[in-house]
Amino acid sequence: MPPSVTTSDDLSPTSPVVEARHLVKRYGDTSVLRDVSLSVAEGTVTTIIGASGSGKSTLLRCMNLLERPQQGSLSIADERIRFTEQGPRSSHTDMPLSRHQLQRLRGKVSMVFQQFNLWPHLTVLGNVSEAPVRVKGISRRKANALAAHYLERVGMAERADAYPAFLSGGQQQRVAIARALAMEPEILLFDEPTSALDPERVNEVLGVIRGLADEGRTMLMVTHEMAFAREVSDQIVFLDRGVVGEAGPPERIFEHSDNERCRRFIAPAA
Amino acid sequence: MDFGWLSDPFYQEYLIEGLINTLWLLLVSAIAGLTLAIGMAMARIRGPRPLAWTATAVTSVIRGTPLLVQLFFFYYGVGRLLEGIPGIQDSIFWGLLRDPFFYATLTFTLSVGAYSGEILRGALLSVPPGEREAGRAFGLNPFQVFWRLWLPRAVQLCLPTLTGEMILLLKSIPLVSTIAMMDLLQAANIIRDETFLTYEPLLLIAAVYLLLTIVLTLCLRQVEHHFPGVQPVRRAWRPFGQPRRV
User: Fold this and answer.
1) Using CA atoms, how far apart are residues B130 and B132, in angstroms rounded to an integer?
2) What is the complex's ipTM, to 2 decimals?
């Protein structure tokens, strides 16, 4: 890593692994994110909540650059990026973000999608081992062992040879979580991981995510499962019409938020 | 019915040469054509505008004109034009350029490229974009996303249609008998001329084509059944439909 200015923050035990500052994301004339800042400490769980259209998913997708903001900066897993109207630039080199740096970042930040997005023409094992083989360049044999390990972790080891179409939604999402874990990422992103599931399948997926939170993994999550968010999160970020309405520990957000709209958003769930 | 000519070694040789040429033409045109189809489809989906426009134009012309006319155009038109280029007859390419096989392959390759390219384009567009996005999100480069995730899925979706295209290609091949190429039909025509038998040689090659189609279908069905992620839908053997409940 090139030398950078070290502030006292960097030395504290909970130095943020994700630090987003003043993110602005527009589609045409519509501003989805208007000056969003967010900080996630290592080993903590942050949940982004908010009404539909508040920009939750967009914010999450900015974290691995599936969405590219037009302004602001992002520091994630030791990658520092500055966003401009012309595209993201590396803060290290002040050059446009290279494909290499983008892929390196994505190798350290894994995502679990609402619609699972498994690859239907690959077996469960193939789905989980694909990225380690192609992106990290590890051998097929090692990747299969790695995949088997993480499939075991999510309770899907016995379905390793099945194709995704033959699994239930909950099983598919657990495979998708194993796929994310197999990259051994520094940060896990969950984009509404239970929203596409039947109610009776939600708990099996939440159980896996709860286990990961207990392991002390750094996670950033968007969810509508309010009770779950309150239970596992160290920090809740309430996003409101593209700005952070309020951020803080779950007790405060859920019980005595200072933000009127946040209280109203929470009320039906509480 | 007189099939006595079948024992004539000269006629046997014609028929075998015709069969080999037919199969060879099928194989080369299928491989080159499907490769071109991938290029045509991607040019139209992702290519820079001039390339996309060219692919669209080629597709429209090839699909909008009869195959026989295209074959004549390349063999009699382009072939004769090339003949006139000074020095070309001494070049190393001349062997290729005066061979009707070259023009037949060219025509069929373009035809498969145009028709299958459109089929593939539709299939590529119907693969849910989330699957590609997942590939990108895990750091796969665009090349890996295309060859490992996008294209295999598209082929999976359009495989039965592509099988049909290959059968149509096989049965377009007799057209080459019109440009003096020894295929099965040409062999049959020679035998018809020399023995004054109208039907028997035609019946023979019809039977051979039927057999080839069946074999090709069975082979491609194996490909379909063994394509990753596709569970073959096997029908139970019920020749008279669903059993009726009494």
Assistant:
1) 5
2) 0.88
B10 is a domain residue? yes
- Of the pLDDT bands very low, low, confident and very high (cuts 50, 70, 90), residue A11 is very low
Contact A73, A91 (CB under 8 A): yes
User: d(Cα A14, Cα A163) in Å, to the nearest integer?
Assistant: 41
Nearest by CB: B153 against A104, A121, A179: A121
Residue B232: inside a domain? no
Q: Do A121 and B144 touch (CB under 8 A)?
A: no
Collapsing DSSP to helix, strand or coil, A220 comes out as strand
The domain made up of A15-266 is a member of CATH 1.10.260.40: no
CB A172 within 8 A of CB A157: no
The H-assigned helical ranges of chain A are 8-11, 56-62, 99-108, 124-136, 140-153, 169-181, 199-214, 226-232, 250-256, 260-266
Q: Which domain holds residue B16?
A: 4-226
Distance from CA of A120 to the nearest CA of B (A): 6
Rounded average pLDDT over B189-206: 93
CA-based nearest residue to A161, from A121, A119, A125, A117: A125
Does some domain include residue B17? yes
Residue A117 pLDDT greater than 80, yes or no: yes
Number of alpha carbons in the 13 Å side-chain half-sphere of residue A242: 13
Domain total of chain B: 1
In sign, the C-alpha dihedral spanning B151, B157, B160, B161 is negative
A234 DSSP assignment: S
**Closest C-alpha among A240, A236, A239 to residue A251:** A236
Q: Which 3 state secondary structure label does DSSP give A37? A: strand
The contacts of residue B71 (CB under 8 Å, 6+ apart) are B103, B104, B107, B175, B176, B178, B179
Does residue B16 form part of some domain?
A: yes
**Residue B165: CATH number of its domain:** 1.10.3720.10
CA B45 to chain centre: 23
Q: What is the pTM of this model?
A: 0.86
Does B141 sit within 8 Å of A99, measured CB to CB? yes
d(CA A61, CA A56): 9
A81: tokens are: 């990026």
The A residues from 118 to 177 touching B (CB cutoff 8 Å) are 118-123, 126, 130-131, 134-135, 163-166
Per residue in B207-221, pLDDT (tens digit) is 999 999 999 999 999
Q: Distance between CA atoms of A219 and A110, rounded to whole angstroms?
A: 10
- Say how far apart CA A107 and CA A1 lie, in whole Å: 17
Q: Rounded to an integer, what distance in angstroms lies between the CA atom of residue A216 and that of residue A88? A: 30
Q: Give the integer Cα–Cα distance in Å for B157 and B217.
A: 17
